[in-house]
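Input sequence (129 aa), recorded before submission:
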Amino acid sequence: WVQAGDPQPTSDTESLLLYFQHIRKLPGPDAAREHEAARQALARARTDFNRVRLAMILSLPGMPFTDEARALGLLDTVARHQGGKLQGLAVVLSAQLQEQQRLAASAQGLQQKLDALRSLERNLIERNR
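Predicted structure, token format:
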């Protein structure tokens, strides 16, 4: 995800932030390949870096492999690693994902209320005919 000639990341955190910039722009098939590569990397080496990397790809919205619950689990492991270099990044990403889930649930609740109001309106219109 870092191109030849680009400045090289100076830390794992910077590397992962550059990785996120890269994956969020990927089309579906490329994102699926990246998901598989991240999954295999974690299977080979259960490091905090690989956990955050996989969590990032799992948190991409609208992908067939999106799994926010699993991403949160991976990030929680890293966030609990006291003194870990990626602890702060994991805490931030976890908070962001939790807020995203809260907003999605709120939007779903609002949509249900809107649908109920529309149904009520239709019933009132039919009754007045």
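Checked by second reader. DSSP finds five helices and no strands in the chain.
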